[in-house]
Amino acid sequence: MKPIPSLDLSPVERLRLVLAHLRDPDEGCPWDIEQSFETIAPYTIEEAYEVADAITEGDMPHLEEELGDLLLQVMYHTQIGQEAGHFDFDSVAHAITEKMIRRHPHVFGSADVADAEAQTLNWETQKAEERARKAAESNIRESALDGVSSAFPALMRAVKLQKRAGRVGFDWPEVDQVFDKLEEEIAEVQAELKDNIKERDPNRIEDEIGDLLFVCVNLARKLDVDPESALRRSNRKFETRFRAMEAMLQDETKRSMEQTALEELEELWQRAKKFDKA
């Protein structure tokens, strides 16, 4: 049996020791011993989303808990990296510290930055220089889209791809042009459905729906709206309204959704929408 790490240790050191004990090949936890970067990665993504949800809800005790869960993910990956001889927590912390110092010369150096917008431009310039340097070192043709991970959620990746393209001039200057493109993509979806009414090709339909969603993301970006946050808000709104419908239906008629005509459900939906403003 492993001893419980002493409270005299710093919280980070104590957590590192807990993970080391869990991963001990002889006395650790069987589940933890079997884990790898690949098996832990989905949990890392999940915990990041749960942090975002806690922030959205403004629940600080929950946020504290979720940040702990996210920290655990970072510590878990560094523990695996240390065991394999790739890196450890200290080297990871050192690398990000040096990066933050390098990208803030107006704080840690003599550079002058006028405002937050100027700093954002400066940040992106430095990131582009770092990507160019890495491409040169790897003898790979440089692209403005380098560094946009394919592991990002689709909406997030679409925004990043569009921003990168926009920085080199491939962007509509006016939002009205995005609306024109949106109408064009809607028409193409409708045409695809009409032309293939007997034998619809799911790949072609998926392709057109993807193009439509991509333009919706572009519209959100041009209006300074985060599409991921906007969709999460709509999801919460839908869930609130739907639950209200279920409650009204049960309280007033004792019927289930399945036993109710669509017209009546639409009336309940309109009533549930009033709860948004309550």
SSE blueprint:
Blueprint lengths: L10 H12 L7 H5 L2 H21 L2 H25 L4 H14 L2 H4 L7 H23 L15 H14 L7 H21 L6 H21 L4 H27 L8 H12 L5
Helix pairs in contact: 1-4, 3-4, 8-10, 9-10, 11-12
Characterization of this structure:
The chain has 278 residues and is mostly helical. 72% of the residues lie in helices and 0% in strands. The protein contains twelve helices and no strands. Helix 3 (37-57) packs antiparallel against helix 4 (60-84), helix 8 (154-167) crosses helix 10 and helix 11 (227-253) crosses helix 12 (262-273). It is extended, with a radius of gyration of 25 Å. The termini are far apart.
Condensed summary:
The chain has 278 residues and is mostly helical. The chain has helices spanning 11-22, 30-34, 37-57, 60-84, 89-102, 105-108, 116-138, 154-167, 175-195, 202-222, 227-253, 262-273. Among the domains are: 11-102, Helix Hairpins; 108-142, no CATH class; 229-277, no CATH class.
CATH homologous superfamily of the domain at 11-102, by name?
MazG-like
Poorly predicted residue ranges: none
| Strand element count | 0
Which fold does the CATH topology of the domain at 11-102 refer to? Answer: Helix Hairpins
Give the helix level as a range of percent: over 70%
Strand residues, percent: under 5%
The assigned structural class equals: mainly alpha
State the distance separating the first and last CA atoms.
56 Å
CATH class of the domain at 11-102: Mainly Alpha
The major pleated sheet works out as: none
Mean pLDDT figure: 89
Number of helices: 12
Order of helices and strands: HHHHHHHHHHHH
CATH architecture of the domain at 11-102: Orthogonal Bundle
Shape: extended
User: What Rg is obtained from the alpha carbons, in whole angstroms?
Assistant: 25 Å
